[in-house]
């Protein structure tokens, strides 16, 4: 059982959804990222996803693209990702890495899974790794007792949902709508339908991401999901802040709001 | 090593590395493609379009004066430059446009570097009454403004991509983001033999007519198969198109010429197989120009159409098993061949194609006067006149 499994079980016992926050390593800077992580943990976030910034992020909208550009220009690589992961796990929150596949393959599949475990990580979210290409990855995650977390979409058919969720560990990442990351005015009704379809084929916790930015949205998702994932909304605050202090304060305020939201849904 | 499986692998290359959101669309595309490849009605419709619209079969021209610079080897040019829209790209877009209609989709999106695929896609969309959006790096819209105007004349919307390096690779990223969002009514008309399965096989199937025609034509003209078949390789669609029919002919050498830019040793090049390493980019595993963290490295070439840090997975496989060879041609050598073909044969080639011609000068000298070389003259050079004039010091 990973620390992520325990956190999600605890939230289930408290009859509430978990709050999961995403921040790319090296953003807004190497040190700044570590402060954001502490701020998120202090504000009541249950789990933290550390993003591995990538040159060709086809699943991401303009906000995360900009953060990735800034991070890569600052020289972020695997070292900084594992440093941030370690910092996140040391705060006591469950921590995972979210990354496109190529950085894992380049680092070495076995070695990557081992480094995740060595730095206290509970799992890895791989949004562009299909189950057909997963053989070595699944062996590596199993050998290192970490969760392989797959993303499913509203277009994923039931038969495939069964196959993908059967290979997933930790939680099933449900993309709320068809599209890329970024804040949206409303979370699509597709999300509810997708979550109920996942429930029919899997007992794993289901966490919903893509487009969530407000307490109200968190509350409405918490009514039926086991977790709510927020990324772009935090990054936007950091990009727009006049200085680092103001950015951290804004992140803290939003995280506290969202932490209330995930407790109000049921 | 298994050469091909149902998941779209060529040995260790190919496959699918995409968000789940796209799987259903890729499955649908694969099913429709497999169906139509066995459907005589579909194949007849496409062949008729090629006869009456593309101008197929394309002819073969023997380049006798150019051959004098190639060690006397006989050089034969497969004239894809004479196709409608001026390059081989039309073969693929007409096929994919027919598939789009079969799937009941009304909108196509495409990426383009130099603009040749964008123009071809816009052309096919105009012909078949489809809505067309073309993503093009902002840098490229400036370098190739004439092609932007052509696409607009054809009724397409051209979106200048400002993210990342603002070139072809970022145009593909943006097209994929559009596709993830609008996949219910949109087909992504990818322009080369890369991307997730089934694109590498599907695009090859639409271009293999080049090799099939050439093989027959060469037998007719020379009474035997050529000693070597040469083509330029960016993503690699024209090369796969002409190679495919010759793959079983073990005595025919298949040679791909990559863009060496300033020289592979300088790091400023687009020679992905020569200078890259295996990795995953844009949904497929192949050779990639990348750094130690797996970040894509920017490519450099005088030819916008070859300026891409990836390459089709079948080329990676043909390279590894030794069936095809790949060499890099620097900008200078390509531009010399560009000028030489223009002056000796009265044919101005695309700068992309000029890389294959520069390869012919080298290979011809290696093989000597008894050799027959077949070159895919993949595109014409009208679009490159400005770049060439600047490079060769011709005042405009």
Write the layout of secondary structure elements.
The complex is a heterodimer of chains A (266) and B (396).
Chain A lengths: L2 H11 L4 E7 L5 H13 L4 E5 L10 H12 L4 H13 L3 E5 L2 H7 L1 H10 L4 E3 L9 H9 L3 E3 L1 E2 L5 H10 L4 E4 L14 H12 L4 E4 L5 H8 L4 E4 L1 H9 L3 H21 L2
Parallel strand pairs in A: 1-2, 1-9, 2-3, 3-4, 4-5, 6-7, 7-8, 8-9
Chain B lengths: L8 E2 L2 E2 L8 H15 L2 H15 L5 E3 L1 H4 L6 E6 L9 H14 L4 E6 L3 H13 L2 E7 H6 L1 H9 L3 E5 L6 H15 L3 E3 L10 H9 L1 H14 L5 E6 L3 H7 L9 E11 L4 E3 L1 H4 L1 E5 L2 E5 L24 H8 L3 E7 H15 L5 H17 L4 E6 L7 H8 L4
Parallel strand pairs in B: 4-15, 5-6, 5-8, 6-7, 9-10, 9-15, 10-14
Antiparallel strand pairs in B: 1-2, 3-4, 10-11, 12-13
Beta-strand proportion of chain A? 5-15%
* Class based on secondary structure composition and strand pairing of chain B: alpha/beta
How much of the sequence lies in strands of chain B comes to: 15-25%
* Tally of separate helices of chain B: 16
Q: Rg of chain B, please?
A: 19 Å
- Average pLDDT for all residues of chain A: 96
Tally of strands of chain B = 15
Radius of gyration of chain A: 17 Å
Estimated helix fraction of chain A: 40-55%
Described by the principal axes of the CA atoms, the overall outline of chain A is globular
Query: What sequence of helices (H) and strands (E) makes up the elements of chain A?
Result: HEHEHHEHHEHEEHEHEHEHH
Q: Based on helices, strands and strand pairing, what is the structural class of chain A? A: alpha/beta
| Low-confidence region ranges of chain A | none
What is the end-to-end distance of chain A? 27 Å
* Strand elements of chain A, count: 9
In round numbers, the mean pLDDT of chain B is 96
Q: Major beta sheet of chain B, specifics?
A: 7 strands, mixed
Find the biggest chain interface.
A-B, 41 and 36 residues
